[in-house]
Amino acid sequence: MKTELIQIGKTVNKHFSVVIDDYCERIGHYMPFHVTTLPDLKNTKALSEAQQKEKEGEMVLRSLQPSDTVVLLDEHGEEYRSFTFAAWLVRQQHTARRLVFVIGGPYGFSDAVYSRADHKVSLSKMTFSHQMVRMIFCEQLYRACTIIKGEPYHHE
After folding, report:
1. Cβ within 8 Å of residue 98, ≥6 positions away
2. Partners of 71 in the β-ladder
3. For the purposes of burial, counting CB atoms within 10 Å of the CB of 54, is it exposed (0-12), middle (13-18) or buried (19 or more)?
4. CB atoms within 10 A of CB 21
């Protein structure tokens, strides 16, 4: 199974970028993993929140393949403990050809993206910046990989 993370805009904080790159490299030892960064929208001051979500949603949808299993990282998604997320990931590995996680823009997802999604996952009830979500997600995906392999990274 190939796994991909789609995100809107570059990671601006250099400290986060270093950590994200490190986790992405580590994840690559367990599964094919790729990060796709879609460009930030230009002239967003001239766009409403709804228009911004629609334009970002169009970019996301163009990045997807019909057979993709799409997982939105969304505050209203299901919350998992690390072990249950790892078990969920194993189930996806048996059914998904390409598992695509998506981090939306600052206003979330368009209705069209929600309609396309197969799953929604929440990383916490707390709110994090989009920059932090990237780092936290990559760490959690790496943690799930080590749990699946029975490696000592995660401590219960």
Report:
1. 1, 2, 3, 4, 65, 67, 68, 69
2. 101, 119
3. middle
4. 13
To which residue do tokens 């230009």 refer? 42
Q: Which two tokens stand for residue 102?
A: 């998506």
55 near 26, Cβ under 8 Å? no
Query: How many angstroms separate the CA atoms of 136 and 11, rounded?
Result: 13
Question: Whose structure tokens read 């000592």?
Answer: 152
pTM over 0.90: yes
Tens-place pLDDT, residues 98-115:
999 999 998 999 999 999
Identify whether the C-beta of residue 69 lies closer than 8 Å to the C-beta of residue 99.
yes
Q: Kindly state the helix (H) or strand (E) to which residue 147 belongs, with its residue range.
A: helix 130-149
Cβ of 150: how many Cβ atoms within 10 Å? 7
The residues, ordered by sequence, that sit 6+ positions from 66 with a Cβ below 8 Å of its Cβ are none
